Amino acid sequence: MDKDSTYWIRKLNLQKHPEGGYFVESYRSVESVNLPRYDGPRHVCTAIYYLLVGDEFSSFHVLKSDELWHFYAGSSLTLYIIEPNGRLNEVILGENIDKGHTFQTAVKSGCYFAASVDEYNSYSLVGCTVSPGFDYQDWKIGDMKTLTKLYPQHKSIIEKYTR
User: Fold this and answer.
1) pLDDT (tens digit, 9 = 90+) per residue, 128-148?
2) How do beta strands 112-117 and 77-82 pair?
3) For the chain, first and last CA: distance in Å?
4) Which of 46, 75, 128, 157 could form a disulfide linkage to 134, CB 3.0–4.6 angstroms apart?
5) pTM of this prediction?
């Protein structure tokens, strides 16, 4: 772990995340909504700081809500998004717009997605905003066997980014 990633972990009080990396919740709206597809009320919006270091990755997972990813600092980060129809999108979050990077992107509900740092000797600090707000009841970590059965055309990427 380099000094920059250690700095952010301490400065932002980041903790280990179950899918990999480090996080801290930075916002949870006061207001809640009740929508038919959720089991009970959800906060309107939540946000976290999220950091991946070197060869760490965010394991494939899926949410019931949309999630916006925002780039802040460090190396670019690649998001691997598998849509329900099996289409794979690779989105690079980063600061080099001329090389096809973007500062933010949306992952729609129902898509399995994973992320990795593009430069192994660096880190990626990003933000994730979920609406309706994040709740562990609406989060599911991807299972390698299930995902490769659903999306055999993406077997190699699924094997690389599941635990």
Assistant:
1) 999 999 999 999 999 999 999
2) antiparallel
3) 21
4) 46
5) 0.95
C-alpha dist (Å) from residue 151 to 79, 91, 144: 17, 19, 10
How many domains are contained in the chain?
A: 1
Full residue range of the structural domain in which residue 147 is found: 3-33+41-160
What CATH number did the domain enclosing 60 receive?
A: 2.60.120.10
Quote the tokens at residue 17. 């995340």
Total count of residues recorded for the chain: 163
Mean pLDDT of the chain: 97
What does DSSP assign to residue 149?
Answer: H
Which among 141, 109, 123, 150 is positioned nearest to 18, based on CA atoms?
Answer: 141
Residue type, 124: S
Phi-psi region of 102 (alpha: psi -120 to 50; beta: other; left: phi over 0): beta
Once rounded to an integer, what is the mean pLDDT over residues 88-105? 98
Question: Torsion over CA of 144, 148, 149 and 150, rounded to 10 degrees?
Answer: 100
